């Protein structure tokens, strides 16, 4: 659930209409995650962008009963330079992640390049769980989860199409997000979400390539590994692009639904945030 939600919640990141202004422009988005109808986690995303650079910060933490047995908190940050004429190429991406899961700290730092394998550092360097191997060559020309989400929404723009495929590496896991053709759907008003109305629907599956835990767990069941993930996108801020307003997937453990609960326009620099408090 953790890596899934991170990829999805950053998905609203794209250049705002005022991106040519000298000061970076963007938005702050807040989400709540429900598993089997029970509140399980909350996330906050902040991004600001100019025509050739983007900075994205995300914080997240479990809550309620999920916090009692998982105790997860995280902060992530990515900054990348882009050629506005070729958004699929980033000369260099810097990504950092710090988290605590069941009282154990985990940290990742990544430098990603279009023409050579990534440089990365992870702590702990090796965990107790055997994982599928990663070939360094598989990390060439990939994107971190936050920047990949930025790219997917940048490619959509004002069109009614979803991207085809995005290569992603988070410092431990390497996967491709493979999208299906776009659809449209109207979301009804709900006390869970701030949004109701027409949405563009993008569905994708995670194609695992390396770095995944081999042992079967509640969150790593073979029958769940290629379940589709559905993202509903809509415009909620004037002059800004579509953002995810609802994200959902069905797992053996239960349904996971993510709702947008707040959105506001911001400007200025975006920096890595501190870990959320207990």
Can you describe what's shown?
Keywords: Signal. It holds the Pfam family DUF3108. InterPro entries: DUF3108. This protein is mainly beta. It has one domain (2-267). It contains 3 helices and 14 strands. Strands 1, 2, 3, 4, 5, 6, 7, 8, 9, 10, 11, 12, 13 and 14 form a 14-stranded antiparallel beta sheet that branches. β1 (25-35) and β2 (38-49) form a beta hairpin. The radius of gyration is 18 Å and the shape is globular.
Number of helices: 3
SSE string, helix = H, strand = E?
HEEEHEEEEHEEEEEEE
- The assigned structural class equals mainly beta
Shape: globular
- Portion of residues within helices: under 10%
Number of strands: 14
Q: Span from first to last CA?
A: 19 Å
Beta-strand share of residues: 35-45%
Mean pLDDT: 88
Using only C-alpha atoms, the radius of gyration works out to: 18 Å
In terms of per-residue confidence, which ranges show pLDDT below 50 for 5 or more consecutive residues? 15-21
Largest sheet: 14 strands, antiparallel
Overall number of structural domains: 1
InterPro entries: DUF3108
Pfam family, one: DUF3108
Signal peptide: 1-19
Protein name: DUF3108 domain-containing protein
């Amino acid at each position: 659930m953790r890596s899934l939600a991170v990829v999805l919640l950053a998905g609203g990141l794209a250049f705002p209409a005022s991106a040519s202004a000298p000061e970076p422009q963007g938005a702050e988005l807040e989400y709540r995650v429900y598993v089997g109808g029970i509140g399980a986690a909350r996330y906050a995303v902040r991004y600001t962008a100019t025509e050739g650079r983007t900075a994205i910060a995300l914080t997240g933490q479990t809550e309620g009963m999920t916090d009692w047995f998982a105790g997860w908190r995280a902060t992530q940050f990515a900054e990348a330079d882009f050629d506005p004429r070729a958004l699929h190429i980033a000369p260099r991406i810097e990504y950092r992640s710090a988290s605590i899961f069941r009282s154990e700290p985990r940290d990742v730092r990544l430098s990603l390049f279009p023409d050579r394998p990534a440089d990365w550092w992870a702590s702990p360097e090796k965990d107790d769980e055997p994982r599928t191997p990663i070939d360094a060559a598989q990390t060439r020309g990939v994107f971190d989860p936050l920047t990949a989400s930025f790219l997917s929404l940048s490619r959509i723009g004002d069109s009614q199409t979803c991207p085809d495929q995005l290569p992603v590496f988070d410092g431990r896991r390497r996967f491709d997000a493979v999208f299906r053709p776009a659809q449209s759907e109207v979301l009804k008003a709900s006390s869970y979400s701030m949004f109701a109305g027409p949405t563009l629907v993008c569905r994708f599956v995670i194609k695992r390539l390396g770095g995944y835990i081999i042992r079967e767990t509640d969150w790593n069941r073979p029958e769940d590994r290629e379940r589709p993930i559905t993202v509903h996108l809509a415009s909620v801020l004037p002059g800004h692009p579509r953002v995810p307003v609802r994200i959902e997937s069905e797992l053996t453990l239960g349904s996971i639904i993510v709702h947008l609960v707040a959105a506001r326009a911001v400007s200025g620099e975006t920096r890595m945030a501190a870990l959320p408090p207990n």
